[in-house]
What does this fold into?
Amino acid sequence: MDNQKKKETFKSGFVSIIGRPNVGKSTLLNQVVGQKVAIMSNKPQTTRNQIRAVYTSDKGQFIFIDTPGIHKAKSKLGDYMVAAAENTLNEVDLVLFVIDATEKRGAGEEYILERLKKVNTPVFLVINKIDQIHPEELLPLIDEYRKHHDFKQIVPISALQGNNTDALLQSILLEMPEGPMYYPADQVTDHPERFIVAELIREKVLHLTREEIPHSIAVTVEEMKRGENGKTLYIYAAIYVERDSQKGILIGKRGDMLKEISKRARMDMERLLGEKIFLEVWVKVKKDWRNQERMLRNFGFYEEK
Ligand SMILES: Nc1nc2c(ncn2[C@@H]2O[C@H](COP(=O)(O)OP(=O)(O)OP(=O)(O)O)[C@@H](O)[C@H]2O)c(=O)[nH]1
Ligand SMILES: [Mg+2]
It folds into this structure.
């Protein structure tokens, strides 16, 4: 009887997380699914692809789609990233428009609000980073945004600290249609290990380098194989940069930088995959790869078209 009732009321659907770069979209995704699925950093344009992660409870299942921050694209890669975010808008049951409470509404938000006018999908305004503002600053912010869109809900949160994210999940449940379990209850992501491994290396580069380097790199996993003892997982990866000078920076004095990147990435991989890992990383130069369609395809962009 009980089971019958549960079945009838189970809800599920797709939820896209959009917003400007660096507002905390990936942090929110990881917080709600309780696992690091998407890499995070304080550099804008960290996320480059649609990242899917699944949240399952006994009442429902939501498939969250984290997207690249919407920005003025300056390369073919940028065009791809913005399209990856905008393409989700019509294909999901709900859009979470995430803003940073500490930042003034700017041209980026205006642009997104304009885009949202053209879709029929319900939208929640998620005001993130409330741990950084005084509570009194919240109401004026809400009033201002409310004028520009008929948001289904306005939910202030701190994705980093997990403040109010449970309330957000409850509001999402109300918005979801009745539906099936799309994924097994224990599955959090459908991204292949190769993708996550490459992303973790890219994340360490983002954390350890500055200026143009974070935007100039791509990471590929060339080989992943299990050792003869069956225990160690051997991973061979390459970081691509656009110029020789960038290669020098990434390798560092006596190879120190590359060693640090590899060490940090390996520790994260071991934590995530729960096994012993041997990681070797090379740095290669590929001039202006961000504007070369063939290279972008090689690096796995454009796959969803
Ligand atoms: N104080 C505070 N910082 C946060 C919060 N959420 C995210 N951040 C920080 O904001 C920065 C950007 O977070 P990300 O999750 O990578 O942002 P994003 O929106 O996915 O960025 P892109 O992928 O570049 O579009 C990181 O340094 C986070 O630690 C929050 O609730 N409070
Ligand atoms: Mg991100």
About this structure: The longest helix spans residues 256-273. Residues 19, 21-27, 40-42, 44-47, 68-69, 128-129, 131-132, 158-160 surround guanosine-5'-triphosphate (ligand 1) (CB under 6 Å).
